[in-house]
Fold each of these.
Amino acid sequence: MKFLRRFFIRLSNLATGRSSDQRLQDEIAEHLAFQTEENMRAGMSPTEARRQATLKLGAAEAIREDHHAEHSIPFIENLLFDLKYAVRMLLRSPGFSVIAIATMALGVGATTAIYSVIDATLLHPLPYPQPQQLVRIEDNLPGVGAQDVGISVPEWRDLQSSGVFQSVSISGHGANVNLTGSAQPERLSYKHVTPNYFAVFGVDAQLGRTFDPHDATPGFNLEAVISNGLWRREFGADPHILGKDLLLDNDVYHVVGVMPSGFRDLGSTNEELNTEIWLAAGMAGLPFPPPLRGSRQQSRVVGRMKPGLSIEAAQAHLDALVQSLKKQYPAEYPAQAAWTVRLTPLSETVVGSVRQSLILLFGAVGLVLLISCVNVANLLLARASGRGREIAVRQALGAQRTRLIRQLLTEILLLFLLGGIAGFAILFCAQRFLLRLVPETLPHINDIAIGWGVLLFAVAVSVSAGTIFGLAPAWLMSGVDLIGTLRQEGRGSKGSPGRSRTRQMLVITELALSLVLMVASCLLLRSFWDLYNAEPGFNPDRVMAIQTWLPGPNDPSQDAYRTATQEAVLLREILRRSRTLPGVQEAAIGDVDALPLGHSNPGQLPLIREGIETMDNQAPVIDSPIVSPEYFHLLGMPLLRGRLFNDHDIETTPQVAIINQAAARTYWPNQDPLGKRVRLHLDSRELLNSAEPAWTTIVGVIADARTESLADEAIPQIYRSVYQHPTKSLAIFLRGQVDPSAILGQVRQQVQDIDAQLPVFHAQRLDDVLSTSLSVRRFSMEMVAFFAATALLLAGLGIYGTISYLVNEQRREIAIRLALGAQRGTILKMVLRRGLGLAAAGAGLGVAGALIVSHIMAGLLYGVSPTDLPTFAGVTFVLTTVALAASYIPALRAMRLDPITTLRSE
Amino acid sequence: MKEKPDVLQGTLVLMVLKTLDVLGPQHGWGIARRIEQISGDLLAVNQGTLYPLLLKLENEGSIASEWGASENNRRARFYRLTAAGRKQLRTETRDWEQTAAIIARFFEVKAEDLT
């Protein structure tokens, strides 16, 4: 208690300054006056009286200092003193300070920028209460090698009542809709979710409410919850948003709630995008398929377990449930499929493909930071030679080395901190502009915020960087040779060999680090370039894709489009009408899986080849898009063998399929696939129609196309005709000179003329789809390239500074050589050789580092080997050239040295 | 010159408090002189050390001070004992007497008493 009280008194003394000191001085003066008076009364002369009084009092200054030390906090006082001194020193050499601060601002600013992205996306994947209770639930069919096949509504109900969970929610994988009626029409991603979705996550709305879990309708219940980002962006944070209409595609929803800004939807994967609208649906009625046990919907299932239940216990409970369900419904759960339900902690599943890119970026920006630090450390050492005298004098006056180091470190820390704060300030001011550079496909883009957390990060980074990179310079600077330095008088110090060695090591590090960055960026650039120029195998030019969804009523017998024959009538009419639209030259139809690069989860089916797979559960799985006959011609995918679908392939004729080359190579190596028969079993779509799927004959082989991913050359595909296999989610493809803004309305009108119930939504140009699929790659490539350029610049400056310093140190030596008749060319060569030596050492280290890094990032590369020789050679060449160019200026200066003046001045 | 015994910090506090208790409000010089007189010059109070102590005691609330005029009309800061100071004086006196008694007993002890 007493200690605490004393501490507070000291603190207040510190704050109020000298008041107590002043009083002490007053009192001492007063005392002296009394004593002098007394002494004079005793008969002393005034001078003697004063002298005796002072003697009697003791050393007044020492008393004052003792008192001061006891009544204040010397550490903080010293710090304040050091800070004052540091500010003076920084102001005295403004050029140096500005360069050092700018370098650090660049390093810390860039690091902080990337950190803010990572903070929003990777570090807080599960911003929900009690995240350990949240699990992802996956239905797997390991018997046929199918994973995460989705869930059917009856299965969901079983899970809900299993006793394991507080509640279980289903959500769609997210898709895009057009929002109209807000400030401006916008394409957003939405998710349809069961009404208990937000209850599972345990997050409530900031305005209004979330969905009521008891409020279940079979289909969409026309209520919408929107994200904070959308609310602010499109509705200007309108407090009266509740109850307002939201026109999504052509459906009217009304807003019931706005989620808080901290709420982030699941999915750090870029396919799930940034969900901004949630729509409640029962998933059991229009437009969802009927709630049969066998009709699983592609969806994400998340449950909140009961409190205190371990995931193992829950899994055991579910395994038992699965066993009993299998017995109860043997037809829906065939033994060979080996249906299982697997629980995974939710936190483990939210790992997206952007993770790799972001980690790469963070690594790159970390290197830039490192280079900035090294550069500043180098500058500090360079300045040390100029301050040798000052430090020597202070040491001679009795400053301890630790005290000197503390003071120098304060100066360095101030420099780093100013740099960090400047970097943050720039970032803060430029955030609107910078956010525009971030690709929209990055998840949680609305959550990227430059706030307190980020500021804290910037300060922490600056302080730790300052401490790490400041200690060595401070140590080296404080360790001057006292006598040597002072004896040199005004001639400037010669510097210590330790400092010089450290500086060279720093430059080598810098060069090595920038080489690593440059190699990484070159490899990414080449990958991107190759991808960008990769022949996709289909022609996206002037192709629009527009989606529609056929309703699936609860009762299959009510379904107007139950059979392929029924659906064919509709599809042929849509195609006929679409061709009449202005500018349309060709039209085709496919399901969502047939949409190139535009879908996230291709529907995979087991492929059972006649005569090869005897056991169903050994079958491989294959992507299986459903298309209309015109599809291949419209997308320019050439037929290599056999025939395409034609209008005579209908429900009643033998089933036919077309495969791509990759499928032919993979499944029928060195054979003619034409005429081979396959069975695509366990197809939920087929179960609706025929109990016994017939054999499907392969009639054609088309060329490979990168319809799944631009980076993947060929993924086996088996195409079937839409006239033989009805499908609910459709995409209408149109090629021609169409007006992208009007086409959606035109198609919608035509389609709804045929069936007014059909939603028509999401018109996109395939060109856009293509470039969007590369946006994250483009972003990381551009960023890494920018960082590499920065690194090269910094390294160039670093080598320039070091060589200049070396030349300056060797002035005398060079002058003597020149005086003794050395050729000027030889001097030039001598200096350049120093630069080249540093560059060679840096490049050697850098190549070794780059080899490691390029292998780590091999997953991000495409079409270029991690050890690509031209890249390594080219980068090394560029780095050496820059290093030589940077050494050339000081070398020239050395060459032109006038021996007479130099030697005289020394 | 013969070294005079230095005054222990704690003793000085007690002396200051007792002086103020006996004489009532005093200025710094008065306290210093009184201590000197009572100790009969045997004890050299380095007079300067008194003032930090007075400040400290005032900070701790044992004494209070205000400006006043001295007997010869010089402006001076007068210190007086507060209630807390009086209490402190009582405890410190008791502690001191206890310590002194113990020490005294040690001096009285002879070898044969301990067997």
Amino acid sequence: MNMLHMIVGGLTNVLMVLIAAPFAQGIVRKLTARIQSRQGPPLLQPYFDLLKLLGKEDIESGEIPAMQRFAAYLSFTAILAVACFVPVGFASPMNASGDVILLIYLLTLCGICTLLAGLAAGSPYSLVGISREMMSMIALEPLFAIALVVGAVHAGSLRLDRILNGSPYGGVGLSGIIMLGVISFSFQAFVQRTPFDIAEAETELMEGPLMEYSGPKLALLKYAQMIKLIVYSALFVALFTPWGSGLMFPFGWLLFWVKVLLLVLLVTVVAATHARYRIDQAVRFFASLAGVAVVALILASYGY
Amino acid sequence: MIAREMFEQFKQRFGPLIERADLPSDQRIFVFVEPSSVRHVTRHIFRELDARYVATIGADDRPYSGKFLVAHNFAFDREHLLCSLLSYLPADNPRIDSITDMVPAASWAEREMRDLVGIEPVGHRYLKRLVLPDGWPEGNHPLRKDVPWNEVPETFDDTREFKFDDPPEGCTVVPFGPFHPTLDEPAHFRLYVEGEMVRGCEYRGFMVHRGIEKLSESVMSYNDIPMLAERICGICGCVHNVAYVQSVEEAAGLKPPPAAEYIRTIMLEMERLHSHLLWVGLACHIVGFETLFMQSFRIREPIMWMAEKISGNRKTYALCVIGGVRWNITAEIKLELRNVLDKLESEWQAVVAAVSRDKNIQKRTRGVGVANPLLVKSVGLLGPVARAAGVEIDCRHDHPYAAYDRVEFDVITEQGGDVWARLMVRMKEVFESIRIIRQCLEKMEPGPLQLEIKDELPIGRIGLSSVEAPRGESHHFVITGENNRPRRWRVRAPTYQNLQGVPAMIKDQQIADMTISLGSIDPCFSCTDRLETIDPRSGSVKVWTQDELLKLTRTKKEARR
């Protein structure tokens, strides 16, 4: 019974994310267009784009085609795996089969896929792209990990349902508020939007690691990127603004998606009003955030 | 200082070295010297008199004087004087001492002269092929008069490849171009990169030569050429159109009627408006700020509509003929243009206010791609690039043409010489252009639009014209000739000089800054590449020969059938 519950719950999560992600992307594109005095594509355009890409010829290219294919599949599945562990309107379904450490690993795996993709392409541009990706990963990934660990320290447990429930605030909430600031400032980078879309920077690196991709494999990578926006938003909501998640079915669920939508809108506005940072500027920014995050971790371990 | 005083100075100093001199007006001076004393005189002009280097022109003059002709053009900007230093070279052995050790700015021009006319600059340190395609045989110089305009030499070798220099030790090569999203036109920079830092680069351009100069002196006639000239560039075509016509007019001693001069001024400024707005948009696109890119294109669009209403075209205005212009600006268009300008001014003020407060853009542009006044002088940088370094040069002010002597405007300068300063210069120049157009509309009076030219234009006269294009000075050099066409027409677009400064600007910077540094000179490759035909292949790291590529495309096509 419990097993069945887990599988159904996981599948429901995956399905919801799969459906919602292109729609969120549609909202991003529409809002961006309105800010730029453009008409913008219809809200459903990302679905059509994905379908179009999926229907194209599957071309083998780059230095190591097998690895290229693997990287595309892996990035798609890794982010969907994350989706199974994150509450998306309902409580986290796979609560019992994994803990926070698994979640941190899975999040890192998503970044590693970009590296694999870039390596497989093997062009100078993609290599520069992955060197940037690596630099920002090293500085960036610890931030979410620290946020989760702060939550774990306060909750006194590694269980997902106890941590993904506003736990970073603990009793006093000081470290939680600091982490809220840190993650808010770096959120744009986690979902790879301007001003931190440095690894792909079209005008510098011609999409960097993605440059050799086309057709269905590109569709998977693009899809993974859209899902990333939803999943990270869900993580953010669960960690920092879980209020109302306990409400009765349609209300709690609706409230959650409204919060995610607000985050998506915020991400869009920030992306549309900023220029891209250079990698050294970005890394310096992440490093200073990491310093602040470590302070929050120390505070948390003393109970603040 | 007028031309006569300058010439007296020359005569006192160089006396017997000067063979002949022409002073057609107070603003022009043509000095003919022995080839052996060119370096001597150049040193005096460039170093002691602090002139600005403009261009070097080689011409095949054998059918007329039995000799080759070389002209080094200099500008005395404060004195409002253009000076040309000419010398004749023997037909059997055209060699001239290179001036590049004193004037590094002449490097490309001398290489081009060697490629196209076959005049050997003796002492030039880097005599690599510049203009001709890779497969073009040595010893065939297409701008010589005995080479037909439509000839492809039999010895043209498709398989020959361009030899790039070896990268410095410890550096990897990142090819930038020939095709790249931020390059609107093909050009190839081989970047030598250490990690994320650019340590140097080699440039290979001239991939879209169209043989425009050769066509002009062999096939077309005086009044056809303006239409060809404005097709040199996709953005600042009107500049070439006007500059060519002005140089022919100057050579022939014609003065167009005042109404025509005002119309020329108005169209040149409209072109500057749309070019600067386009550039600000592209610069924002390069640093990833798409919103401002879209907004400046929206603000720019009414200018394009206005141009279409006036000339029938958004971009190629077909404005000039020798001695005047082809169409009028009517009273209703004046009114509409005023309204467009008012709207543009208020919208642009909002953009400038937003950008100048934006910390984010400053972070990406301050201290990036710096060109100091020293580099400006030695490489001959022009236009907004020079003005952003605090060097106050602007042909509209220094060498007034059309109606610029009758309008008031400020020459915008900034300090710093970085991309940010160039951004500010261009943004503020938009307001000056609006001011100029308004004054022209005010002062313009109805009158004839063209001169009546009854006689043939005189033969063998030289005309110079410097027009301030949106990117800097566009310099045209014309020798009038027989058969209703010029003997030689040389175009020196501003990007020709500005590109030579790019290697110094991007050295020891991050790759991420390369695109905006290059973008900040507003490069215009079609202007630079205006010569000769035949498309050469790219020299990317993994080299396909042309044959292989052709075979590949053909087999794919076969397979599809």
Amino acid sequence: MPHVQCPKCKTRLDLDDRWAGRQGRCPNCRAVLSIPGPASPTASPGEGAGSPPPLPAATQGAAPPPLPEPRSFASARGARLWLFVVAGGLACVATVGLTVLGGRMRADRGAPSVDASRAAAAASASGEPDAVATDGAEGSLRSTRATAPSDSAAPYLSASTPSSTPATRPEPVREGDEGLVGISRQYDDLDCQRIQGRHGVRIPGAATIIEVNGLRLPIANPSGLAAAPAPILLLPRGTHAVRFRPSELPLEIAIDDDFVAQYGTMRTFFSVGGSIRGDELTSRGARAMDVHGAPFLLNFMGAADATQGRWAVAERKFRRALVVNPTFGPAHLNLAECLFRRNEMAEAARECALAEAFNVHDVFGLAAAITRFRRKLGEPIGRPTTADVRVESYVSTEPISEDDHRLTALLEGVSKYAIRDEERGKILNNLAVHFADTDRPQLALHHFRGALAVVKVAGPERFELAAQIFSNMSRVCRRAGFEEAAEYERMRHLVSP
Amino acid sequence: MRRIQDDQRTRFRPPAARRAAICLVAATALLAGAVPGAELLEGEFGNVDLGRPLIEPARFPTIGELRRLVARPEITTVLMFKLFAGGDNHHLPVWSEDGLRLAFQQSDGRASSSKLFVFSSLDRREPTPLTDQPGAYDYMLRWAVNQPLALAFARIDPARQTTRIYLADDGSAPRAITANEGRHVFPALYRRTDGIWRLVYEADGRLMHEAWDDEGPVDRPAALARGTSARWSRDGYRLLFALERYRQGKLVAYDVALRNLRTEVNRLLPAGEEGVVRSPTWSPDERYAAYYVRSPGDDRPWRIRLCPTGEEGTARTVGGDVVVNRDFESEGPAWEPSGRRVWFFSNEHRQQAYHPLVAADVASGELLVVDYPRRCTTPNDLAINPATLVPEMAFVAHDGLPRDLFLLMLNHY
């Protein structure tokens, strides 16, 4: 059993043998520690994520809340050097230190954790329970069965965090630059957009078909997908021939790593499947001013709501994920589960068909879950049905009149000409106010987000404007009885210079 | 004495209730002065400033006012403003197919030059000059089909007396596509989903086709027919164009023709009338072609005719004595996005220098006359945003000596 004393706060720790030769964080002051002893033959996936894992709770006792990371790498390196003197292994520690430093820098840039991906992929390929493959897909809704509602019929609410990928908790990073301070940028919306872009191909507005490696996806209106901000078809690792028109040549699309592994790492990061880090998701939502360019975080947020039995809120999150990227299979299947619970069987079957259609070569690892869901619906297995994607149907289920369409087109049209983003944001806010005033909260929230999308790139006034818009959103939710009211209040306080 | 005065003052002081009422009226008048007639909803921002000189109304309308406008049954102006005035004359605004970009031409008669400008984003205060080459004469711009960031245009090289087609893609510097010989005009550009570009243009009376991708040409340049003013269909396999008609070796008229690039067959559309044809344009659903036509001879008025692109039906005239750009021939009649009507300015409806908008219903042929603020005179080159549900129209008109670019938004189609 290795013993180590934290060089920073002098806390003495008694650790299991499995920690020997590895690095960890002091549960008291979060300083990086190198634990003496022979190195473990297999590195933990968490190490690959660039940040040492917290030491086990069993040895921590009642650990105080984690403090922010050291502000500079120099101080962390200094701590490691001190440990090196104690351990007497300069070369070894320096090597480890450089590795960790490189990993941290990768993580700070939002680069994927290659080691974690490999480990997860290896776990999946080695015949372990298809932790990432099935989880990643259903993942969003996968949380412990114990926390699911007792009447849960959802098979996706059963998985726990895969043992092969222990949770790498988000580490607060003090960046000190623009935007929110003290929040990790790993897996924020920009990072998620990069991940999405790396793992897929954008469907052009001119698409009349979607064909991958000679297999035509059963989607009735591919060109309708272009109405979404990020119609990116996710593909598994490998080189694919993707064709968007029957008489044109296929494009060669190379995907370097498995999306399912990457998604699994993200799930682990946010503890999806366990006690979901809702605060981290909310803070990232606030950083993005509630405007997402990738569906992953919204899907996780929906999962968090679902595990707390807030199914109506979860459904709205899944719908929002699909407004962002209507090809995201997990959100389709999660939405299908919500609809199933509301006894909307036809719509649930349609969403299940879409989840299957976009699960190209099982990119999401959804195949087994789709089969289970089809059985639950009493639908035939293995006979994919052609489905129609209507992006606008995910925006709202509220009635909209011809005059509403005209007013929307007018204000969205004229807002394009506003020279200042602040003024454009005001116009779009006013459009949302129209829907709020006529008791259509879903449409109002959608258009408030449209205003935020503009305001977030505006000048110094953006924080004040965003706070006002969040205040409007919160008020709309309160009036409508939506539980998101508190969420928007929190975001209002989080967006500040 | 002093006390008496005080008493008098007291006697004439309004009672408290009346004072409050006066204050209220004064405050209301003050507010009304700031935003006359504005009744803001809870959470609505007032005093929105587009940052552009509004022609009508004087301030940005409130939600309440806009609600009333969109509910009106008749088509009416919601907002009109000047988009650009650069001191020179402007011509032929053209929308990109996604409706998010607008390009137009600026001519300088004194310098015999012409430049192209692009609003790559409509929130820009000023458009970006596509080129700034001294002495260049750029015109006949046309956005690509299936690639909203690319456009093609023709450039006259005054030194070599040639005209070439150039391509500008995604803000990059324009590059010449066709050879530097002869006169290459009327470009029509198409981008396939597999990255292959296809260009059709007129080369000295012949319709030419070229195709290339990032690695080079994928097809040898080929002559398709004798004709001009080609337009791609959405699928990229049909071309609508004006086909030259010869009699005893002389060009006597044009026909409207459709070429199928798969079968390589030209089919004449039932134009039903012999004359000079300009700028045939697909309807948004591609069921009709609209084009300008006039009888042979000088100073004959231009009309707009429609003919079905299918096998059946006949052509008919829907607008008489329409205003066309006599100097630059690159754009055709303006379709509304639903394909229900064709819009134009007509001398038949002019009131001195003011021309109202005229819309011809495709199904019934019925004409609709729509007024807009009369501050602008002698309008021309109407272009309708192809991607919006309500009318968003760009045109050029005089508001002073030069011809400026205006933007008009109506309440509905």
